[in-house]
Each structure stands twice: as C-alpha cells, then as structure tokens.
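Long-time lurker. I teach an intro course on protein structure, and each term I like to show students one example going from raw sequence to a predicted 3D structure in token notation. This year I'd like something fresh instead of my usual example. Would anyone be willing to generate the tokens for the chain below so I can use it in lecture? Attribution to the forum is fine with me.
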Amino acid sequence: MSDDNNKIYTAKLESLIDLAQILGQQNDYEEVLRLVAEKASNLVNSDASLIMMINPKTWNTIKTIYNKRNVGDVKNNVVHTNISGWVILNDTSLLSPDIQSDSRFRTKLFDKVKAKSAICVPFRVEKIIIGTLLLLNNSGNCSFTEYDLSLIEKFSAVVSPFLHSTQSIAQYFITPLPQEALLKKYEAHGLLGKSKKFIQLLQTIESAARCDVRVLLDGQSGTGKELIAKAIHQYSYRNHQKFVAIDCGAIPANLIESELFGHIKGAFTGANFSRKGLLEEANGGTFFMDEINNLPMELQAKLLRFLQENEIRPIGSNETCKVDVRIIAASSVSLKQLVEEQKFREDLFYRLYVYPISVPSLNERCEDIPLLASYFLKKYSVEQKKKIEMFHEEILDFLKNHSWSGNIRELENFVERLVTLAPPEMKVIDASILPTDFREEWQKVEAISPKYDTSNSLEENLLDYEIKLIRKVLIECKWNQSKAARRLNISEHTIRYKMNKLGITKSEK
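-- Reply from a regular --
Happy to contribute to a lecture. Here you go:
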C-alpha cells in the first residue's frame, strides 16, 4: 500500500474511533442506526446503505434504516432481502463487483435494480448475527474492492456492540407505570420521594432494569447510588443470581486486582490458598463497582479487557474463564472530566457509558426531605425503643432549608442523632434537642422565619413576613440594594420604596 493510501486508511480508521465516541453518547436507537448508515456510506463512497436489524433467534426483521444518494427508487426490498439473507444464512461477508452477473444469486433477480456493485457484512455480538449492513454503488460508479470490504468489516466490528446496546435499550422503553404504582414499587427498596426529579429518576431506573446493558451512575456521595444499583438488579432478569458490590476507593491498590480477578495458591506472598475474584463470584448476576473513579490506571486496562472479552484470569494463573456478569458502575466525580484530565481511560469510559443515569443531589429534590426524614425517624425510633411520632413543623422547615452536602446519608445520620438525643417520653421532635453545632444556623432561620399570630389579620401577617424577607435578603447581599432587588426579582426603585415605607434600615440588626 502506498504512503498516500496508508494516510487515507489511517484517517478512515481514526474516523471510526470518532464514531465510536459519538455512539457512546447516544441512547436513541433510530439516531444510532442513522449515524451508522451515513458513516458507512462516507467510508467507501457508496450510493446507498441499508441496515437491517434482526431477532437472532427467529431471524425476523426488527428494524431497517435506508440511506441513499444517487440510486433512485430501486427495488431495495429485493436487494436487501436476497443479499442480506445470503449473508445471514452463510454467516459471512459478501463482496459482489457486479450483482447482475453474480452466480450466487438467481439469474435476472436484479434486472430491475439500478445498483451494480454490493458489499454486505454482518453485525455480530459474541459471534451471533444481530443484523446486516448493505452498501450499494450504481452502474456509473467504480465497483467495490477487497480494500473496501476490509474497511467495512472493521467498521462493523466497531459499531456492533453499540447497535446491540441501543437495540436492547429501545426494546424496553415501554409505557411507564402510573406514578403512584411506581413510587410504591421502589419504596420497598428504600427509594423514597415524590418530587419531579425523583420520579424521573425512578422512570430511568425502571427502563434500565429491563435491558441487560452496562449502567453508569453519576451522582454525589450519599445520594443512594448503591440502593439504585440493587433496585436495577432486583427488577432485572438476573435477580435470581447474586448482586456483588465493591467500593473501589476502600481497597488498597495492591489488593484490588486480587479482589476483582482472584488468585491461585502461591501467586504471591501470603496467597496460601486459591480464591475466587468478585467478578467470578457474581457470575450470572450483577457486579456493582462503586467509586470506579478511584480504580488505578493499570487496573483500568485489565477491566477494559474483561469488558471486551468477558474473560478473567486469576493472578498467577495461565488459564482464563468466561464470566457473564452485568456491570453497574458509579462515580461521585465526573468521569468525563477525569478523561479530559487523563486520569481515566477514555476507551474504558465509553465501554461503561452505555446507559448513563444522573442521580440528583438532595438539595435538588428538597421537597422529598420531609418524607425521607419521617422514614428515618420511624426507623430509629423503633431501633432505640423511643415513642417519637413526628417532627414539629418548624424542624421540618429547618431540614428543608439546610444545605445537605452529604445528601441522604447526612440527613439520615442527623435524624438518628436527634432520636438519640430525645428524652424517653418525647413524642414530637422540636428545637429543644437540636445539637449545639446546629443551633447557630437554627437561630438565623428562626430570626427570619415568619411568626403567624392568628389574632392578627392576613394583611398584618403578610406585612410582617415581607419585612423579614426583605431584611434577610439585604443582609445576605451586604445591603447592596441593586443585588437584593435582583434576588427578589423587583426593581431598585421598588426595593427603596419598600425600605422607606416599612422602615427597614441598615442600623437594624
């Protein structure tokens, strides 16, 4: 191959890598098929491309996508049915420089077809055909060559896993459960809430549970990612097998390889017996990798190989064994950002980024706080044999307004602490038992919280609330009237008028 041809070939292979990155970010089945058909045509300059996805068990056609340029209204059904059918039946690729005279097909079969030359390759996942890619050139163009076939076969190998994943996902986006039924279903797994963001999260979990693809959970620490992973496993077809979890940040780097892949006796000092790795332990089930962002670089390469081959080799062994496991990974920091910083392998990221789920922080779903707090209150009251029945309304307001940087885990720990501090006969948690480290914040909230006097009129109570709200915002903005007006969504003229009318001055503390 000449230098020029080498450069062209390299450029085309690089374009395949670019395509893989694009497909890794797509969950829309139609869009993935369209991109693949378009890119295939561009690679070998074909006049038309046709993708046919099939059910591997029945060979029934599931979906077809057609991308054409200059072939006109040809009898495409005749072409793709016969050529794609031949490829599926013979389990091999096809190159036909002239389909009109190709002896593999019945004479005059393609007489009414404008296309002259054809390439057809199978899409395979683990040696099973899931579809075909057919490329056509009309009589005015050059015939396809062995070089074109080689390139398209490589193209097929790159895109097949993405087609399989998105096909699985698309297959299971069915009519969602009614909202109440959905909330009740996941409440049993400790997933509680009623906010819009939480319901959207449950709908995503529901879809992920039905399709057997890799899931990447992205969310802050303490948002319940392991509970989500367990729920996905519980409602998947793998639920009769094990759910195995590992925290990649909690195990020393020199031990994590043995934890994942296992070792044989004598593999290293202290290896007095052979031990199965967690991946093998989870065979047939689900393997949850929490804080995968902490996985050392050298192990990222080994995990990537496992995801590609579905094989593990214990430390010290020369033998490999097949493992069928669904990977659910989670990270509390952005893996995309780590990829940009070259702290996480890009190829591994795209292997994991098949079905991404963004888990909202507790501050993004603050209307769920009373429900979660009441759940934890009941749990720890029973555990500690207390008689507590509820929170005082002012405590619930405090919980909703507090910034929970540790998310649900921090809220749970705080409620457990309140239950521990409560006297044996207390039935309603109130401000009297707030820990000292929260009292200053409580006093600030108390200072600006409206106190409603039922003996006063509605107008008087609203006026009192308005004064306290404007004063609070002014204090937070260091008495910058322009800034405070923007926060309150009113004009500077209006805030000055209200300050004068309501007697709000900086001297007041």
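Some talking points for your students: The CA atoms of residues 472 and 491 lie 17 Å apart. The domain at 179-360 is CATH 3.40.50.300 (Rossmann fold).
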